[in-house]
Amino acid sequence: MAHDIDVHGDNPAAARTLAHSLRHALLAAGARDRSVVFACIGTDRSTGDALGPLVGQWLVRSGYDRRQVLGTLEDPLHALNLRERLDPVTLHPTRPLVVAIDAALGPHNSVGLISLRTRGLRPGHGVGKSLPIVGDLAITATVNIAAGAYDAHVLQSTRLYVVQALARTIGVACWDAMQAVTPPQDAPASLVIA
Question: Of 18, 86, 134, 149, which has the highest C-beta tally within 10 A?
Fold first, then answer.
């Protein structure tokens, strides 16, 4: 059963809805028997592309072990280091379940939409990069409109407020979903979804 969903980040129940679907997708993918790693793709050098590192930073600050989170503001996971940082994880004999998180561009009416897909994602595809598919599950948020040849410029001129709000919603949802799967060690017992 697919657990794919789309929820608008402005919806007051967005974090709860995403967490519910992510929890079921993680369990269906075997998260009780495998560790879970969040691959938070992007760079802080472009406002729109900072979604992944912002989510990663949020998760680490919330108590997740840095080994469970690839990609933060301090140590981003991006096109230049993607293979180098992901290969040791995905080729390990006890391969963890990877949740890929990345920003997306789309039509005007999809800006602010958060999507969960029960398959990996191809980072950089929207800006013409040829990178490998990442993840067993994928969370994307549409941060701005697609503009064809101007996509890189659109990402650079995206409002930080929009990206930060979407990143917080995704971070809270990931945290909440993981509490039902396997609580991280030394992390606070609960987190209220706002």
Answer: 18
Q: What is the pLDDT of residues 70-86, one digit of tens each?
A: 999 999 999 889 989 99
Helix locations, the chain, DSSP H: 14-28, 51-61, 82-90, 151-156, 160-181
Q: Which domains does the chain have, with CATH numbers?
A: 5-181 (3.40.50.1450)
Contact assessment for residue 122 and residue 140, using Cβ atoms and an 8 Å cutoff: no
What whole-number distance in Å separates Cα of residue 38 and Cα of residue 6? 19
4-36: pLDDT as tens digits: 999 999 999 999 999 999 999 999 999 989 999
Beta bridge partners of 106: 145
- DSSP string for 30-58: TTTTS-EEEEEB--TTSTGGGHHHHHHHH
Pairwise CA distance, residues 194 & 191, whole Å: 9
Output the six-digit token pair for 143: 């941060």
Amino acid at 123: P
- Give the max Cα distance, the chain: 46
Distance (Å, whole) CA 4 – CA 6: 7
- Supply the pTM of this predicted model: 0.89
